[in-house]
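Review the following:
>
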Amino acid sequence: MFATRAVRAYTAMRRRFWTRRGHYRRDGCWRLPGSAAHLWPFARAFVATLDLAGVAPEHAGGFDADARIAEHLAALEQYWDPAGEWPAYSSDVAGTRFGGDRYYDDNAWVGLALVQLERMRPGAGRLPRAAELFRFAAHGWDRRTDVPSPGGVFWVQQGRGVGTRNHDRNTVSNAPNAQLGVHLAQLGHPPAPDPTAADPLQMYDWVNLTLDAGFSVLGTGTAGGTHGGDGLFWDKIRGDDSVDRALWSYNQGSMIGLNVLLARAGGDAAAVHLQRAQAIARRALDHYAGRYFEQPAAFHAIFFRNLLLLHAATTDERLRHDILGAMRDYADHAWEERRRRDDCFALSAGPLRLLDQSAMVQILALLAWSPANYEMLA
């Protein structure tokens, strides 16, 4: 059932958003020249393609995974910006009049997609690019000492465009990039030691100490925790030094997945990391129960995929049951209540959004995966 739904949702996504120019169109733009989607929604549509490629072929309705993946890899290069010492993907297709900033979270999502491609298809050959993206993030570490909780990767590259006025440091710019670095190490491409850059554990520790809502060195924790790391996690420290206490689901997911990866690495701390992942998951599942549709579907798609990483690692059968139950309930409600006749999902105000559609493809496709394959996710 979920495989069939995923194929239908993917077909609708292609019909609605893919263009003859070989990219996805920007939301609400049908004929405007240069109206390619930003990197963030493009990256999530790429992940949706990979997730559908992970569905058993006999259930994927003739989906040509090889062709679609190759198509997305070609389109991705339209965003590549080689400028500077640490090249990365731009927020918009090169040469367009839109954007052109380089966001550390957007590049993390692309890097994680390339990691998932490698885990699904060993030898895919994209890990050197993923390693470049980690180096980009590692050099986005805040070196100031006169700010609350020094450190952390900025949200956007500083000193250019948006980065001349936005100095936020986010969970989402640190945890996914830490995941990327740990994945690379486990795949035989460990980040090279660099005293001028941050490493994955520094990113991880900064989020735990600064943005854990139950324990924060900022002194405003609310959950009575005695140490950082058990979540839930606030969104960011803004450039004006105030704290954004929003509890977005994708931030919880990234910290769950990061702890699972650190547990996979073994060593004396493995059990602690698994316990933390489980603690964050239980708190998050309880927190979001009955309120999933208050947040963007794209956030939940990231939350759920990281919960599936935990599903593969934990022996807690109740937690496994709750993870899949929450995913299925969300997917069923969206399918039955938020889907239009053309299989597009109306999950946000305004025009149909590529982010919403790709999120539903991801969730539906992953519900059709064999649990034996959850370890391939990134």
Residues 317-337 form the longest helix (21 residues). The radius of gyration is 19 Å.
